[in-house]
Amino acid sequence: MTKKVERLDRVIIRFAGDSGDGMQLTGDRFTQETASFGNDLSTLPNFPAEIRAPAGTLPGVSSFQLHFADHDIMTPGDAPDVLVAMNPAALKANIGDLPRGATVIANTDEFTRRSLAKVGYTEDPLSDGSLAEYKVSKVPLTSMTVKAVEEFDVSKKDAERAKNMFALGLLSWMYNRPTEGTTSFLKSKFAAKPAILAANLAAFRAGWNFGETTEDFAVSYEVRPARLPSGTYRNITGNLATSYGLVAASRLTGLPLFLGSYPITPASDILHELSRHKRFGVRTFQAEDEIAGVGAALGAAFGGSLGVTTTSGPGMVLKGETLGLAVMTELPLIVVDVQRAGPSTGMPTKTEQADLLLALYGRNGESPLPVLAPRSPSDCFDIAIEAARIAVKYRTPVVVLSDGYLANGSEPWRIPDTTALPDLSVEFAAEANGEDGEFLPYLRDPETLARPWAVPGTPGLEHRIGGIEKADGGGGISYSPANHDLMVRSRQAKVDGIARDIPPLEVDDPDGADVLVLGWGGTYGSIAAAVRRVRRAGFRVAQAHLRHLNPFPENLGEVLNRYERVLVPEINLGQLSLLLRGRFLVDVIGYTKVRGLPFKAEELAGVVQEVIDRAE
């Protein structure tokens, strides 16, 4: 019997289960096949904060949401059309996000009395009528998987663990996903374990065949490829894009890349990825703590390398003194802060953008440095290159504020033409620059106010460096009040002057709106999707997004004064709003939430609509 194929323009799927059920792997494989098929997509992995919470409990639920479509999309989606629930905890943790009519595929084998009691169910929700508003498909995933792999020499535990591949096979059939990539992935992953390989392949095929033959699924679905600009694409996460951007920056500057880092969620993937690229001159150093990591990176910068350190909010606090030293010594250093929910160690696997004021002011004294923020996972590549450009040109540390949502989320990335990337070649000081044949390490370029970069060991260019205030020009220790005032103002003027070297803020305002929605960092997709909704409803609204947060683009003040009302959504308690009010005396309207999750487009659209109504 040939089953009906129904065409859809987009689908949102969420895989959810215990942290040991392989939901991240399942979601990632479905994503990779979707990317190869040519759909536009956006993902939202959601990890437990605990290393290993008790099995079957709510804190241990891991999920992976994927939104894919035949057109341009901006977010992982607000509400899943399909929830794959591997156990009662996964159902209970996620059912509140589902709209009426959504599909629930539940692994009935795990809905035992003991598992139900663990999460507070007194009755089985699959049979008590509480899920009547959803389309519920009861599938014994675990037992069917064990049956499918019984001919292979694997333990019962390994057989049951393959149930995620059964689920992947079923969903791959439902949405006509390619299977070759997953087959190749499994053959590579389990090449040294032939029995485990055979079991996982069998489970994957069994899931596909179940969808093909069962009467429970009478329809499969087709989402055609999206019409994207021509080019070569790959799926990429924010952390991977950051890593590639740093490697590209190293090649563009002609400097060896040195990463000094201490592992910390959610930034560790950058360390892991860069450690694979020694053939590009990359050197990675896993330090004993955050302070050692940034100290080594700054030392590498002093020695003529492109120094980089990666961290999250708790690590930024520890790096503060060394960042002040980097400001004082005026050496190029890139600091990637993949923000997570705080304070203290906070929620390691949840996103937030609450480190803006920390990046700007989290050091003693007047310690200005540039701050950038990518707006999407793929934009992390461009921001890494921009950070390197500013760092080496202006001889300054630069902070990049990524976040957990961007770091772990993914989207299609059009691989750039490397010949079109900027030339960031660096010239080191090679000879004395003083009138008496001496080398003056703080003799500044009149245009950029950057000091010369002299590699240690260059004959005749010996100079002092350290954390005590420098004498203007000569670089010796100085306690002169007038000199200190001059040096503080010079360092600030250097950072301020970068504003002339960054693009003006672009505003998307096709209809002459009275309301502007201004965002920064990872809120871009949610804001853009919300603005689209409001415009489709017939209302006028403008959108702009900041990627340079210190200094601001030169035209920001003019843009703010152009609109009657300015709405600033942030995943913090209003840090950018505070800066805008203080700098430009504009009473912006802040909209803030700190739930460890990105904004939903529908939610923001409602807020935008309220602001428009008040303006009229």
Automatic annotation (TrEMBL):
Signal peptide: none annotated. InterPro entries: 2-oxoacid/accept_OxRdtase_asu, PFOR_II, Pyruvate:ferred/Flavod_OxRd, Pyrv/ketoisovalerate_OxRed_cat, Pyrv_Fd/Flavodoxin_OxRdtase_N, Pyrv_flavodox_OxRed_cen, THDP-binding, Transketo_C/PFOR_II. Pfam families: PFOR_II, POR, POR_N. Residues 258-471 form the Pyruvate flavodoxin/ferredoxin oxidoreductase pyrimidine binding domain. Residues 20-207 form the Pyruvate/ketoisovalerate oxidoreductase catalytic domain. It comes from Nocardiopsis composta. It comes from the Bacteria. Keywords: Oxidoreductase. One of its GO terms (biological process) is response to oxidative stress. The keyword Oxidoreductase applies. Its EC number is 1.2.7.11, 1.2.7.3. SUPFAM superfamilies: Pyruvate-ferredoxin oxidoreductase, PFOR, domain III, Thiamin diphosphate-binding fold (THDP-binding), TK C-terminal domain-like. Residues 513-576 form the Pyruvate:ferredoxin oxidoreductase core domain. This is 2-oxoglutarate ferredoxin oxidoreductase subunit alpha. One of its GO terms (molecular function) is 2-oxoglutarate synthase activity.
